[in-house]
Amino acid sequence: MAEQGARDVTVMERWARFVHRRKLLVLAAWLAILVAGGAAARSFGGEFQTEFTLPGSESQRATDLLKERFPAQAGGEADIVFEVPTGIDGARPQIEEVLARIQAEVPDVAAIESPFERPGYISPDGTIARAVVRFTFDADKVPHETAVQLIRLTEEAARPGFTVEPGGRVIQFNEQAEFGSEIYGLIAAVFILLIAFGSVVAMGVPIGAALFGLGTGLALITIAARWVGFPSFSSQFAAMIGIGVGIDYSLLVVTRFREAIHAGKRVEEAVVEAVTTSGRAVMFAGIVVAIAFFGLFVVGLPFVATLATAGAVVVLVAVAIALSLTPALLAVFGTRVDRLRVPFLHQSEGVDPRSPWYRLSRSIQARPWPFALIAGGLLVVLSLPILDMQLGFTDAGNRSPSSHSRKAYDLIAKGFGPGTNGPLLVVADARNGNGGLQQAVELLRATPGVASVTEPVLNPEGDTAVITVIPTTKPQDHATTELVHRLRTDVLRRAEANGDRFYVTGVTAGQIDASDRISQRMPYLFIGVIGLSFILLTAMFRSVVVALKAAIMNLLSIGAAYGVVVAVFQWGWGGELIGVGTGPVEVFLPMMMFAILFGLSMDYEVFLISRIREEYLKTGDTGLAVANGLTATARVITAAAAIMVTVFLAFVLGPERVIKEFGIGLATAIFVDATIVRILLVPSTMELLGRWNWWMPQWLDRLLPNLHVEGPPPSEGEIAGAPAGGR
């Protein structure tokens, strides 16, 4: 095993020396990749469109059946909602004129259902009416220009006393405002790096590397979008992750390079040290993040899998940048890395017993129990709101009150009841005759929780029918979920005696199926990601205790993030400050956040513990190793976390609710992880555990490869009093 570790180190050393000696070639190669990728993305790139499918679910089977036999009922639709306080009947000519213009001027319209031709499309008080515009495409594939044209026509038609609002999924998908949140995160990162390094040149290297990585990653994703259905907010999501990890990974390498330069080492040796220590930590941390992202494939949701792929791509590109472009830039600048110093802000790296971080670590180690209990208790308190977490899919009712889709949603709820915004479609496969259709309608109308049921609409061949069921409760209510399950397992099964087969679908039913699928598969994700991370950390640090402690602390950080998300987005604490109302937590958010945060938390864990392990191998004194390791890494971890937090919070300023949820959750977890966990819990628990920190069973030590993330394994003479085998 030791020989294998030595060969690994040799590979890293050789790579570092190659990058140093061929620095201009490396820089030219990355420039060519960026330019070629950008050109290919513009010429061959696809579009980001949210395509929601759920293979194997009942709702998906029904949707597929409609597309095959009844395409007129399978396309996307938009609501056109009219409100006339003096009465809809008196405004019939104006309403018909609006619908005629839509039919004539808006492309891709398959049919329009007029309120004067369909029963139940005019409210009981006669002041609100809805028309349904059906498109030839699915809602997520209707061209943006088509939706914009529809919105423009309704805005032109509205006037005092005659309200016209477009709504429905087509409008909601295409009403996303563009917002360059990432620029605010970058500006904040510049100031944080100036404070951390005190040098414009040292600040510019991580920023430049991150921009190179983000540009390359987005180009790759855009090209892949030609064949893969990435969600509409994939670019925002990728930018949020890519900027954060891109700056952080390069920041760690730059920090170690400057430490070596300040210690008097030659530029080439400094590059080698940075790559074989911090570079190795970045490589393994990035692998953990990628594993966490790819673990999302077990959920079985293509929508989630493609979003995870986008995240994994930008993370892996950031790792490649940190191991090649960043050291090449450092090789070019060499000892000039500290040029253009900012007065009063110049900082040094390395272990300094006079540092406040060293004194803080020693203070915590002097009283480990109080610090461990206070820090742990605070994390538990922050996590308590999880007990009230309600998962679901947010809809137009959770959007900004100024948006068209929200106004249409509110008018429909006002005129027709809350369930009208989440109709259920019962699709009947009537190839054996349709004798059960009328029985199904009667059973549905007699079901508690059902407000109304339409008569069956048959396709031209008469072998497929659609029945629309309006619940009494809004789409996000638990009662609606129970109704869908009851219809599937009881009510409609009784109507199948005549040979018909009934499926429940529609947006609401599809979201319920997705929620059920996620709940079933989430334990596999948790076990897989935690298990693989545990094995990697054990192999890296030759300690079962360190790996187990890291997993527990990461879970505590994630729990605190979940709690804050519930408090803000579900309970509404401070929601008005960021422009969101109360609603459920997006059903896929906890799963996505777990994958992202478990990986990102490992960045700081690997960086801190690898330095502690390095110091321990030199001294054999765990307490001193913790103090030295914290001193050498605390400032850079704090700077890296501050950058990550500001980048994530910048995206809270955007219009997309789900991105706001990601921003708040990720920022909270990173802040907690870099302060409460790394600064307080790690030194206190390591002091309490003492030599047990490095416990490793002999059989497991022989079984696992020795990855030596802290760099080349020291000789026996270099380990001053370390226990044999690192135990």
Automatic annotation (TrEMBL):
SSD domain: residues covered: 183-332
UniProt keywords, alphabetically: Cell membrane, Membrane, Transmembrane, Transmembrane helix
Compartment(s): Cell membrane
Main location: membrane
Gene3D superfamilies xref list: Multidrug efflux transporter AcrB transmembrane domain
Membrane topology per record: Multi-pass membrane protein
Transmembrane segments: 183-202, 209-230, 236-257, 281-304, 310-333, 369-387, 524-545, 552-573, 585-604, 625-650, 662-681
Recorded GO CC terms: plasma membrane
Classification via InterPro entries: MMPL_dom (IPR004869), Mycobact_MmpL (IPR050545), SSD (IPR000731)
PROSITE patterns: SSD
Pfam families: MMPL
UniProt record similarity statement: Belongs to the resistance-nodulation-cell division (RND) (TC 2.A.6) family. MmpL subfamily.
Protein name (record): RND superfamily putative drug exporter
Organism taxonomic ancestry: Bacteria, Bacillati, Chloroflexota, Tepidiformia, Tepidiformales
